[in-house]
Amino acid sequence: MATISRPAPALPAQATRAARPRWGARLAPYGYLAPFFVLFAAFGLFPLLYTAYVSLHRVELQTADRMDWLGLQNYTRLFEDPFFWNALRNTFTIGVLSTVPQLLLALGLAHLLNYRLRGRTFFRVAMLMPYATSVAAATLVFAQLFGRDYGLINWVLAGVGLSPVDWQADTWASQFGVSAIVTWRWTGYNALIYLAGMQAIPGELYESAAMDGASRWQQFRHVTVPGLRPTIIFTVVVSTIGASQLFGEPLLYEGNAGGGISHQYQTLGLYMYEQGWSFFHLGRAAAVAWVMFLLIVVLALINAAIAARRNRTDR
């Protein structure tokens, strides 16, 4: 007996409309993302573009509403200024003096905290205390410690028979003093980042290395460091960007925007502040800001290229 197939009953128009996603549901993700883009455009993108526009004009702080077109003259005068190159050199040296010891100490401290120690929680919280301390408070304390006549550091040096050091007038000593502040504030922060990366490394790798007779130092070299390579690259990039933007520590170390008597520790951040708020040249300060921005972009690209090359060689 033949069976007769009947067509499926058509769904009501109301059910069909309910099955389709409404315009509100389609636009909801964009609505959730809109506040971020609005805030970014208002407080990130617009100031960046406006600073580029100001850098092409002569703008004085007393008459900020008046702009005279200069083109690239602010940049050419900037590159002809020896104090700009001095600030760039100081930024590089202070960045190296603060970044390299900071990351090495953070890596060592994280390695120690990765083992089972009594009071590990206390030590982890204590490492964040310097980061939680304000820049002003930390710099003022270190400025007293590095004082020439009554500083604790020179008192200790005199106790062991060494001559006192002028930590604020000497070029290398003052740069070391500023670097010590940066290192003290950021070592614990980077140590916790490294510790989080270490805890993501599988424990079976350490057990296998221990069974093969590897010491703790060998485990650190051949297991921990390769497993932390992406984290190390991240901290290097972030620390490099932070070093190129140093401002609060050198400003408060002696209390002037010149960076010492002979500008011996004036960074690019201080140089920009001096041009804009001491000499009232807002156009030239905007040019310095854009040079710093381009420098950060170049440093980030160099770090990314080095990381990509290391990844290709490891495969």
Automatic annotation (TrEMBL):
The chain crosses the membrane at residues 30-53, 92-113, 125-146, 287-308. Keywords: Cell membrane, Membrane, Transmembrane, Transmembrane helix, Transport. It is found in: Cell membrane. Coiled coil: none annotated. GO terms for biological process: transmembrane transport. It is a multi-pass membrane protein. Its main location: membrane. Residues 88-303 form the ABC transmembrane type-1 domain. It comes from the Bacteria. One of its GO terms (cellular component) is plasma membrane. InterPro entries: ABC_transporter_permease (IPR051393), MetI-like (IPR000515), MetI-like_sf (IPR035906). CDD domains: TM_PBP2. Belongs to the binding-protein-dependent transport system permease family. This is Cellobiose transport system permease protein. It comes from Kitasatospora atroaurantiaca. The lineage of its organism: Bacteria, Bacillati, Actinomycetota, Actinomycetes, Kitasatosporales.
